[in-house]
Structure formats: structure tokens, C-alpha cells
Write a structure and sequence with these properties.
The chain is an alpha+beta fold. It has a domain at 31-170: Yope Regulator, Chain: A, CATH 3.30.1460.10. It is 38% helix and 18% strand. It has helices at 31-56, 105-116, 145-170, 172-185, 196-199, and strands at residues 60-61, 67-73, 79-86, 90-98, 123-126, 132-139. A six-stranded antiparallel β-sheet has the order 1-2-3-4-6-5. The chain is elongated, with a radius of gyration of 21 Å.
């Protein structure tokens, strides 16, 4: 079926912001003063992110200042790797959802687009290859620990709840082949039970469940 898990996303957007030499006087409205103010807001946002992560008991990788890669563990989708990046003017949120579908492309993308209108903070988007992400952008001034908690909760919910239905649309043939291959080899079907209703040609296998891919 291919991998639907990634340690990172499309990369870390670089928003280093303006550099201000410590101790240098700056007049209000000058580029340096504006840069200093932006750096202060950026630092506050980073502090709010760290406070939220600590409160949630989540560890994060920090490849550069203001950038956090968080692992959100779900019930259906094993893990959703999520970037929180405090840039010069906004907080960028990005999480890999799944690779491009093998089939039923129009139905697959329509399924996701129909959900966008009911979502908060993030929405489904695709990259040039057709791979799917959850992405969002918030003003830095609105970033608080509570808002980070809310956004991460939304990312996890949208990723976890939509994962199996999306796979059933875009990867049905691959799932059927995987099911048949495991049956032939006598291997466990535990993480495919959610797809038994269409993957198993025989009776008695339609007891639901979840795929942890």
C-alpha cells in the first residue's frame, strides 16, 4: 500500500526575520525597530508553543529556533507528524496526511474538499505530486498556549477521523491485494479489519476495527 507516515513534512519554511544588534538604539518606525518588535512577537509565540507542548506532555524536535516537529498519536492513523513554525509574521502549521491516491482521484480529493468547510485552523491541501497535507496559518499575535492546544487537537482529530475513509476511496485495490496476500501467507489482518467490508470476499470478516498504518 505504500507508506502514509513521514517523519517530516515538505521541509521547514525559513523565516529568520530581521536581525537587530543587541544594544543598538532604534527609532520607532525604522526597519530595525520594526524588526525588533517582530522578533519580540515571534519569541512570545515560541514561548506559547513550548508552554502548550509542556502542558500536553508532548516532546518536539527543534531543528531551528521557532520550529517544532511534534508527533501526534492517533487511534486509526498511528502518528501524524506536525510542524509548528513561528515565522516573522505568522504561525505555519503543517502535517502530512497521506500520499497521493492510487485510484478514484476525483472522488478522493472531493471527499477531502467537502470537509474543508467544516474545519477549524487547518485545511486539507495537496503538493505538486498530489500528496495530502493539513495546513494552516495564524497571525503570530493570536498564538497562545490554549490556541496551540486547540490547533493540535484539530490536526489530530481531522487526521485520525478521515484517514480510514480516505484510504478506502483512494487505495481500495491495494488494500484488497494486501488482504489476499496476508491471508495466503497466514499473516495477521488486525490492522486491516476496518476494510473487511470490501477487502474480504468471504463471510464473517466484517467485524470493524481500525487500520494503524
Amino acid at each position: 500500500m505504500g507508506s502514509h507516515e513521514r517523519h517530516g513534512s515538505r521541509g521547514v519554511p525559513m523565516n529568520p526575520g530581521s536581525q537587530v544588534t543587541p544594544g543598538t538604539p532604534t527609532a520607532p518606525g525604522t526597519p530595525a525597530a520594526t524588526g525588533a518588535a517582530a522578533a519580540t512577537v515571534q519569541a512570545r509565540a515560541a514561548s506559547a508553543i513550548e508552554s502548550a507542548l509542556a502542558g500536553l506532555g508532548l516532546a518536539a524536535e527543534r531543528p531551528q529556533p521557532g520550529s517544532y516537529l511534534v508527533r501526534l498519536e492517533g487511534e486509526r492513523k498511528l502518528a501524524t507528524m506536525t510542524w509548528l513554525i513561528a515565522g516573522g509574521h505568522s504561525l505555519h502549521v503543517e502535517a502530512f496526511f497521506c500520499r497521493q491516491p492510487d485510484e478514484n482521484h476525483a472522488r478522493f480529493y472531493r471527499f477531502l474538499l467537502e470537509r474543508n468547510g467544516r474545519m477549524y485552523g487547518v485545511h486539507f491541501a495537496v503538493d505538486p505530486q498530489g500528496d495530502v497535507y493539513l495546513v494552516g496559518r495564524l497571525p503570530l499575535g493570536s498564538v497562545t498556549a490554549d490556541e496551540i492546544d486547540r490547533i493540535l487537537g484539530c490536526v489530530l482529530t481531522y487526521s485520525d477521523e478521515n484517514f480510514n475513509p480516505a484510504l478506502a476511496i483512494g487505495f481500495a485495490s491495494s488494500i484488497r491485494k494486501e488482504w489476499a496476500w496476508r491471508v495466503k501467507r497466514g499473516e495477521s489482518l488486525a490492522n486491516l479489519r476496518a476494510f473487511a467490508r470490501f477487502a474480504d470476499p468471504g463471510p464473517g470478516e466484517a467485524d470493524g476495527g481500525d487500520v494503524r498504518t
